[in-house]
Write a structure and sequence with these properties.
Chain lengths: 222, 222
């Protein structure tokens, strides 16, 4: 057990170091990095497809997709005219900073906002800093309003919570106020958006928020 | 890396040994053990609440609940009159056989079917045998019909696939035939049920299946 813990600490220490390098390098190029985390099927890729339209002509967007297998998500994003790179982890349950670092030369400098879509998993990705400036956790209405306290780390370490698939709320017992209250109990500083990438509800507000957060980063770094 | 791989192999080897002991011990007592795996919020606990009613007077049911935090799921199952024990992993992303083994004395012998509800995670639990006779993976319609190939291990190692939340199908782009075909491509022996624990659709067929599978185990062990 001791040996396992030492090794885990080595991995996390190395990850943290690389994440700091990514944050510095991307900050220097004016790239605002956003780490998207959620359960499988909470709507991360659909969100990116919707943002591709909303951010067009406002920010140059790029995407790194993390999945265990398949290029499917990168293909969906590319079909919206956004450059995308796929990482397939081949079994691993989360992205690590070194996987992202390896792709940064390909991403280049002509990017204003770089989304990293993590592996669909509400547990493991929360432990790994990817060098992001903004960590966003998605909770979709069909998953249930009881999830924040059951999977607290993702909610504790994020700055933003998106309550997604708001279009399905009429068909579900999901209580938006309960989910918000529980998430805020874990992390009182969470900024929360209720949205649907299908109907567009709440999407403009989130797109505007991203633009202003990027501007804030630029000011802070200047 | 070598050291990491060695340690992982140690963990999995030890897990496998304990899982075999659980399988033998439960088989000897006529306890049919079912491991339920899925993403968070795919409907595992709601399925168990529904089965509590359907199996009543037919099989003595018990449940071991796995979660990172909270007793919520065990409380929901107990409210249906079914004995339930909660394992909180305190951060770990899956159950391991040793966690189950520790609870077996409490579960006792007056049980016909023991469900183990794994941590909500479509990735990590697939790597850990818990001593089950039947591994069941749930995929809920809101998660999307593209999930089997993106998270193949859970589908490859299960004997049964439940396509849950069928009541939401009219509101979603989920293609049942696509999901089935893709899952069967990964694992041609999968038995698939389409069901809704809310409306009851498909639930009787699945309950009957569990009863006949338990009988088959008893015959095989006799």
């Amino acid at each position: 057990m001791k040996k396992q813990i030492d090794i885990l600490q080595d991995i996390l220490g190395t990850n943290q170091k690389i994440a700091r390098e990514i944050r510095a390098a991307c900050g220097g190029k004016g790239i605002f990095v956003v780490n998207l985390m959620s359960s499988p099927g909470a709507g991360k890729t659909t969100l990116l497809e919707s943002l591709a339209g909303l951010l067009k002509d406002r920010l140059r967007m790029a995407v790194i997709e993390g999945d265990i297998e398949t290029e499917r998500d990168a293909e969906r994003v590319r079909a919206k005219g956004v450059p995308a790179w796929q990482i397939t982890t081949g079994g691993a349950c989360h992205l690590e900073a070194r996987m992202v670092a390896r792709l940064l030369p390909a991403v280049g400098a002509d990017v204003d906002i770089l989304f990293i879509e993590n592996v669909g998993n509400l547990v493991c990705p929360a432990g790994y800093d990817l060098g992001e400036r903004l960590r966003v956790v998605l909770l979709s209405s069909p998953e249930g309003d009881d999830k924040p306290k059951k999977y607290p780390k993702a909610f504790r370490t994020a700055q933003v919570l998106l309550l997604t698939k708001a279009d399905l709320l009429p068909h579900l017992p999901f209580d938006v106020q309960r989910a918000k209250a529980e998430a805020l109990e874990i992390n009182p500083r969470l900024q929360i958006f209720v949205l649907s990438a299908v109907t567009g509800e709440g999407m403009n507000a989130f797109a505007d928020f991203l633009i202003s957060e990027r501007a804030r980063m630029r000011d802070a770094d200047a």
